[in-house]
């Protein structure tokens, strides 16, 4: 049979007696040898180009054992191209897939957390946040299904500098009122709704320690409402003292009146 492609050549040299029907056996003509060499060169080019069926190079010889990309991937257990569903797993990656390739650009969960800016050394920013529940979608709002625990109150961590003096007088300078976002606040993104609160300027005049720059724009102020509780506690104590003095004065007055009545 005429050997028309490389895959038909024999590993035993003595069995290769023709090239595409050209006689190269012992005693062949010189022109036959010339033509056979040319034919072999053509076969090699066809093999390189993959133009002839049956010329697949075995995997053991450094090839794929296939004549098309699909069969080559199957033979090599390589990932397919196409839909994501075609790729069921990846293993042994030494270079991580980039984000543009559908990967993360890193090779570990810890590195992924860092790359997303979510590790303990990062300053992350979110539009809204839900803890144990869905985020509201309202810019700047944090929603949680349980208590939010922060800062510290333990007396063992504090150096006291005295109780708040004149608490009632300070409280009496404050006003609790209803309000809604004005035009400036609306331009900053706040919606118009009925709310209750105090004035940061009034609080700043008596207790600047509970004032902080407003996160929306640091030229404005906001109040740590929870830090007003100590002022209210001391105010209640002062008021209690006043009430007790009044009660004693009233009792003394009643006793005087009672004695006067008995003498009469």
Number of domains: 4
Number of strand segments: 8
Tell the overall outline.
rod-shaped
Give the fraction of residues assigned to helices: 25-40%
Termini gap: 153 Å
Strand order of the largest sheet: 1-2
Largest sheet: 2 strands, antiparallel
Low-confidence regions:
none
**SSE pattern, N- to C-terminal:** EEHHHEEHEHEHEEH
CA gyration radius, whole angstroms: 45 Å
User: What's the pLDDT, averaged over the residues?
Assistant: 83
Approximate strand percentage: 5-15%
Q: Look at the helices and sheets and give the structural class.
A: alpha+beta
Report the total helices: 7
Q: Main traits of this protein?
A:
two-stranded antiparallel sheet, 4 domains, two-stranded parallel ribbon, 264 residues, rod-shaped
Brief characterization of the structure:
Helices cover 33% and strands 8% of the residues. It has 264 residues and is an alpha+beta fold.
Give the topology.
Layout lengths: L17 E2 L2 E2 L6 H20 L19 H7 L33 H7 L13 E3 L10 E3 L22 H5 L5 E3 L3 H5 L7 E3 L2 H7 L4 E3 L7 E3 L5 H35 L1
Task: Please characterize this protein's 3D structure.
There is one protein chain. The protein is of the alpha+beta class and 264 residues long. The chain has four domains: 50 residues, no CATH class; 33 residues, no CATH class; 31 residues, no CATH class; 103 residues, no CATH class. Helices cover 33% and strands 8% of the residues. It contains seven helices and eight strands, in the order ββαααββαβαβαββα. The strands form four sheets. It has a two-stranded antiparallel sheet with strand order 1-2. It has a two-stranded parallel ribbon with strand order 3-4. The protein starts with 17 loop residues before the first strand and ends with a helix.
């Amino acid at each position: 049979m005429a050997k028309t492609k490389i895959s038909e050549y024999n590993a035993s040299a003595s069995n290769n007696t023709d090239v595409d029907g050209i006689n190269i056996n012992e005693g062949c003509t010189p022109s036959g040898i010339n033509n056979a060499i040319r034919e072999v060169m053509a076969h090699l080019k066809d093999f390189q180009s993959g133009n002839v069926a049956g010329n697949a190079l075995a995997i053991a010889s450094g090839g794929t054992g296939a004549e098309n990309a699909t069969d080559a991937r199957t033979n090599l257990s390589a990932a397919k191209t196409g839909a994501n569903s075609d790729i069921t797993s990846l293993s042994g990656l030494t270079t991580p897939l980039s984000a543009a390739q559908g990967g993360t650009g890193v090779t570990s969960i810890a590195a992924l957390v860092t790359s997303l800016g979510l590790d303990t050394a990062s300053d992350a920013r979110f539009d809204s946040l839900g803890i144990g529940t869905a985020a509201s979608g309202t810019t700047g709002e944090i929603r949680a299904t349980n208590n939010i625990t922060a800062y510290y109150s333990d007396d063992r961590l504090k150096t006291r500098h005295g109780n708040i003096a004149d608490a009632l007088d300070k409280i009496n300078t404050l006003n609790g009122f209803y309000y809604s976002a004005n035009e400036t606040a609306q331009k900053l993104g706040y919606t118009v709704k009925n709310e209750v609160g105090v004035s940061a300027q009034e609080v700043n005049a008596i207790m600047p320690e509970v004032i902080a720059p407003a996160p929306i724009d640091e030229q404005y102020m906001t109040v740590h409402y929870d830090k007003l509780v100590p002022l209210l506690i001391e105010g209640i104590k002062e008021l209690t003292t006043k009430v007790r003095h009044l009660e004693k004065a009233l009792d003394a007055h009643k006793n005087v009146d009672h004695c006067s009545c008995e003498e009469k």
